[in-house]
Structure formats: structure tokens, C-alpha cells
Amino acid sequence: MANDDLYHTMRAMPKIELHRHLEGAVRLSTLVDVAREFGIEMPEYEAETLRPFVQMMPDEPRTWQNFLGKFRTLRQFYLTPAVIRRIVAEAVIDAALDNIKYMELRFTPKALCNITRSSFGDMVRWVCEAGTAAARDHDIDVRFIISMNRHEEVEIGQQVTQAAIDNMGVGVVGLDLAGVEAGNPAAPFARILQYGRSAGLRVTLHAGEWDGAHSVWEAVSFVGTDRIGHGIRAIEDAGVVEVLRTRQIPLEVCPSSNVDSGVVPDFASHQLPLLWDAGVKITLNTDDPLVSGITLTDELVRVVENLPFTVDDVKRMMLNSAESAFLPDVERRVLVRRFQGALFPLGA
Length: 348
What we know:
Layout: H1 3-12, E1 15-21, H2 28-38, H3 47-54, H4 64-74, H5 81-97, E2 100-107, H6 109-116, H7 120-136, E3 141-149, H8 154-166, E4 172-178, H9 190-198, E5 202-207, H10 213-223, E6 227-230, H11 238-247, E7 251-253, H12 255-260, H13 272-277, E8 282-284, H14 289-292, H15 296-306, H16 311-324, H17 329-343
Parallel strand pairs: 1-2, 2-3, 3-4, 4-5, 5-6, 6-7, 7-8
């Protein structure tokens, strides 16, 4: 299949995104507009001037320091509720334009509140209301996952969890533990995450990205999680891989992000084929479309072009995403049937 044909095939495919951060899904043109409107100092108010500060550039060393450094710039732009609502609406519209039909958009209230000084509850409500309104007009179903950082105080996690519970009625379906893995165990957050689960929220943990397989084991066995964000370093421990396989705990894999953040040296070295061959349940995602300069279509094309996967393999990963969505059982079954019919119309 020629590259153009492959791109058009993936572009036309209905898709699901389970791991996309709002903070890394902003339009570059919107950042320029906000900088101009609020007087954020720039040498010139042009997209290409700003791009190297918020997106990984081709000649830039792929390290976690450079990758996370983009967010230090991005977090200067969440200046008002109106700006935040615009960013959310555009993130949803951009997903819909990429033929994503279901998306779980995650965000970190603490990061978005740093300038507005609003309450976490207000921030969660603003994001959910803006995202839901945009989804209603653009043929996409969007739910929300609320993130806390493991390198920040547990008390912040408690407040974030309560804000998530209070906003379940406007689309919040899950909690996420993100942040700097190495040296910051997840265990102190276990009680908080279980409190959220008891209220009806689902749980996903970033683990096995910048830290090893033991981080995945902690997430699964000591904290309890429904999905794992990234999780690719689980391959370093056969026992952990077997637990993921037997329990069918899905991994939210983001290959381009893993390369851009230095977790793997290049696409061809990615652990994804080994995990797939071991029977681990894989979903494909972008993580941060702006930072990596990709769409979900681009991500799927890269997987087929650079790894030993076929288009049908990618379709099966999309079905995994449907089966792993943080939806009530009935709604999830409807989503799975919808994607089965769309991706394998002859029942293959």
C-alpha cells in the first residue's frame, strides 16, 4: 500500500483516543492569538517563532527534560476561563476532524489553575461544559479524565478527586495519576484513588514510562488500576507482562511520545511488538498532539510503516480501545458493536 493510500485509509477509519492531554492538544495559532491579546512577550507574534518552545523539533535531543520543558511554556497561556474554554472546544473539534468518534480527554486542574487561581471544581466544570458543547456539534463523544501528579502533595490529589466526583454529572469518568515517576511512588495515592473508584470513577495510572516494570507492578498490585498509561517498560519483567496479559489490563500506548520523550531511542526500537506478541491488550494514542506534532491518524500510519503491524492489527487495537473505554457497561457494549461493524463489516 502506497504511503498516500495508507494515510487516507487511516484518516477515513473511525478512531478512539483514550490518552490525550488537553495541555498538549492546543492549536499553535491559538497560542499566538492569546500571546498577542494578553501581551505575552514574544520576538514576533508568528506560529513558527513559538513552535520550538511548545513542540519537539526534528534536530532537538529526545530527552524527558526537553519534552516536559514544552509544558512550562504552554502553562503560561491558561490565563482566563474564556481562553481555557476556547482551547478545550478546539481540542475537541480537532479530534473530530481527524475522524475520532470517541475520546477521553484528560487534564490536570492544578496546572490550569496556576494563573486563574480558580477552584479545582470550577476548572473541571468549565472544561467539561466547553468540551461537551463542542462534541455535541461535531459528531464525537467526549468524556473526561482528571489528573493529579505523583510528584505533588497528596492533599492536592484529594482536592482533585473531590472535584472529579462533584462533576461526574458533566462527563467526568476517570482519575489519572501522572507526573514524574522516578522517585515518586504511586502508593501514597492509593487511598485517594480507591475513594474515587468507590464513587463510580475509573482509574488509570501513568506507569512504566520513565520508570521500570516495578512501577507497573505497583500500579496493578498495590494501587489498583483499570488501565495503564504507557506501560511499555513492563516488557522488562516477564512476570509483570503475564499479569497484564492474564488480567487483560489495557495499556494506553503512545509511540511517538515515547520517542520524543526519550523513553525509546527510535520508533523501530519500540517495545510495542513484543507486548502485542505477548498477548497484552494494546490501545494506540497520541498523548500530546501539539508537542509531538501529530494527529492520531499520523500515529497509526507510523505504527504500520515502522513496526511489524498491518492495518487489521491497528483495527484490532481500535477495538481494544472500545472495549477499554471508561463507560457504563451498556454504553461500552454499544461502542464496541459500533466499531466492530465499522472496522470489520464482514465480521472478520
